[in-house]
Amino acid sequence: MKVTVDKDQATKGTPWLLIATFVLAILKLTGSITISWWWVFSPIWLPFAIILGLFALFFAGYMIYSLFQRK
């Protein structure tokens, strides 16, 4: 039996955020940690929140810049 490795799949790497979420969920379900479920799932939503926050800062900066350019 010959095993072949798809190069595209091999270069994608490990989904570390998903693994971190599973680890935190298992620790929460076993009672090893007492953090909120919001923090258990934070590896999933936190990157999106950071990107959204950066976009909001960029947009606010652009709006302020455009207001000062009109005067």
Walk me through this protein's architecture:
The structure is a single chain. By secondary structure, the protein is mostly helical. It has one domain. The protein is 73% helix and 0% strand. It has 4 helices and no strands. The longest helix has 29 residues. It is flat, with a radius of gyration of 21 Å. The mean pLDDT is 87.
What labels describe this entry?
71 residues, mainly alpha
Secondary structure: elements and pairs:
Layout: H1 7-10, H2 16-30, H3 37-40, H4 42-70
Tell me the number of helical segments per DSSP (H or I, 4 or more residues long): 4
Silhouette: flat
Instruction: Briefly note the structural class of the backbone.
Output: mainly alpha
Average pLDDT rating:
87
Q: How many domain regions?
A: 1
Strand segment tally: 0
Low-confidence stretches: none
> Main sheet, how many strands, which sense, barrel?
none
Order of helices and strands: HHHH
Q: In what range is the share of β-strand residues?
A: under 5%
The Cα radius of gyration reads 21 Å
Distance linking N and C termini: 74 Å
What's the helical proportion of residues?
Answer: over 70%
